[in-house]
Amino acid sequence: MPDSKPKYVFLLPWPLAPGGGVNHVLLGLSDAMHGRYSPVVVVTGWNRPPSGQIWLKLPAFQLPLRNVAGFVIRFVPSLVRLRAITRRAVAVNPHFADTEILPLVVLRKLRLCPKLILSVHGADMSDPLNASGWKRALYAWIFSSADLVVACSNALAVSVRQVSPTAKVVCAWNAAPLPPKIPDQRPIESPYVVCVAAFVKKKGHDVLLQAFLRIARERPGLRLVLIGGEGPERQAVVSTIDTLGLAQVVDLMVDVPHDEVWGWVRHAECLVLPSRAEGFPLALLEAALVRTPVVATRVGGVPEFLTDKVHGLLCEPDRPDQIADAILATLSDSMAAGKRAQALDVRARELTWDRTLERYRSEAGLP
How far apart are CA 206 and CA 195, in angstroms? Predict the structure, then answer.
């Protein structure tokens, strides 16, 4: 029997699978829809998705000319397929900001598709913010053409307005994922601090390693565990570890299953996020739900929900001395660190996907 609920169409550049980041956001919003909408996932990238997800390769509008030609050749077929996919949907909601969605914008301008909600999460704003000339104007038009742009932090909403002052932008914080059952056994016997972040420059692994050089001298026996998805900075991080002589006290792990990451976070002395830029980091919420103390930089959406000395300890970015001080302070006073972790746990549990979805619905005027 066909599903009688209206469709809610998500667009994502890669196949949707359980895990952190944007995948977690889509899965959380889908679960919150309950009996209201029927979520449909459209994968717009070049990797074939699993059964149940629609594959529609959407090229970006970018130079050189062969890329522009490919975009033009596929433009009308993309319009036709998107029109069919979004028919009888209540909204179409890309979770990335790039020129791939130009066919959707055109359909919306022609009133041939439902309301267009554009969600941005942080990394996807890099190109729009750095663009100039015609491309900057194109991004501005994309944002202003959406019925709603949802940013995962107020700081990110400001970035959207810098690109497109006329866009309708709101902030909707992401929600806290519920932890799985975590084994009582520690993953390693040694005490350790953990950083969970993709190996990209903005995550500041180099700054954390500089800080840990001092910490390792003052706290012999303490380890640093770096867990992250594969990224362009991984080899640079490995080189920095070797250069600083930290190879014996630093563990680097790539693409750890998400359920296992919870265990590493739960048993850590603290979680550290030394980022240079952030949207709304889910790693801090996950640490909150297992009451692991946190040390983070005062960037992006972090200080919007984490108050310094109340929920955790905040530092300025690119300041290894401050990060080292904050980690050592956390290790030295476990009672104060525990109180901060408990306060952040209470804060995190106020954030639910039902609440986030209601923000989407009310601001976009969805039924």
Answer: 12
Q: Is residue 41 part of a domain?
A: yes
Helix (H) or strand (E) holding 360: helix 353-364
302-352 tens-digit pLDDT: 999 999 999 999 999 999 999 999 999 999 999 999 999 999 999 999 999
Beta carbons of 299 and 355 less than 8 angstroms apart = no
292-297: Cβ within 8 A, 24+ apart: 292/265, 292/266, 292/268, 292/341, 293/269, 293/330, 293/337, 293/338, 293/340, 293/341, 294/270, 294/340, 294/341, 294/344, 295/270, 295/271, 295/323, 295/326, 295/327, 295/330, 296/272, 297/204, 297/273, 297/323
- 60 vs 7, more confident: 7
| Both structure tokens of 275 | 């980022």
Mean of the per-residue pLDDT values for the chain?
93
66 φ/ψ angles, rounded to the nearest 5 degrees? -65, -30
* Residue 360 C-alpha from the chain's centroid: 17
Contact 294, 274 (CB under 8 A): no
CB atoms within 10 A of CB 247: 12
Same domain, 86 and 229: no
199 and 141 both lie in a single domain: no
pLDDT 10s digits, 73-115: 788 888 999 999 999 999 999 999 888 899 999 999 999 999 9
Q: Is residue 180 part of a domain?
A: no
Looking at the structure of the chain, the number of domains it has is 2
CATH number of the domain within which 199 lies: 3.40.50.2000
φ, ψ for residue 224, nearest 5 deg: -115, 125
Backbone dihedral angles phi then psi of residue 12, each to the nearest 5 degrees:
-140, 140
DSSP codes of every residue in 125-178: GHHHHH--HHHHHHHHHHHHHSSEEEESSHHHHHHHHHH-TTS-EEE-PPPPPP
**Is 298 part of any domain?**
yes
Check whether residue 115 and residue 42 sit in a common domain: yes
pLDDT (0 to 100) of residue 62: 66
Q: Same domain, yes or no, for 163 and 37?
A: yes
Q: Are 279 and 154 in contact (CB under 8 A)?
A: no
